[in-house]
Design goal:
211 residues, single chain, alpha/beta
Amino acid sequence: LVMNPVDRERLLVEKIEYGKNRGLFELVLHGWDHADYAKLNEKEHKDSLYKGAEKMQILFGVSSKTFIPPYNSFNNSTLQAMNNVGIRIISSTLNYENENDIFRMETIDNAIADPNLTYHVPETACFEKWDRNGHPIRIPINEILDDIDLSLWYYGYAVITMHPITFVKLHDGESDGVVDEYQINDLRTLLEHVESKNAIFTSFSKITAIS
């Protein structure tokens, strides 16, 4: 959730509350605003994550242990601010694995023993990529399924990113609000594929065993 604008639509808040209360999904922080965190200074990092975490607690009664940075962009100042706020998990793209002072999921057995570690649970598959104008480009379902299979084999889990705009019809990259049944069918295919692997749908907290 991007927390600054999230309560501008009451229906959206009600749907989020509905899903949370039924255990359909885990609420995680996507920032206060949709900002590039690699470009923020230390104070901006701290203020943004603190305000986002505080508002999530007020609105939904939960605190996020996970941060998904907008644009998949972060740096070591982000990790320090996360530590100050009590956020233990970050999820970005795989290309950050060797560029920052973070720990890969292979070390996750140490999560309970060392509460000071930050863990990277990276995105390993996605429903869309973005062109230079910020418009989504949909990825063929077979390519997504291949990425999921590779991730399950290598990591033992897969993190699949999708956005609401994926599931509405687009004209020149813009949505008219009409549901795209082809994309819904692709999502159904994905869910059936994961179930056929005897995999389970879970949350960041359960993967890492961080309460």
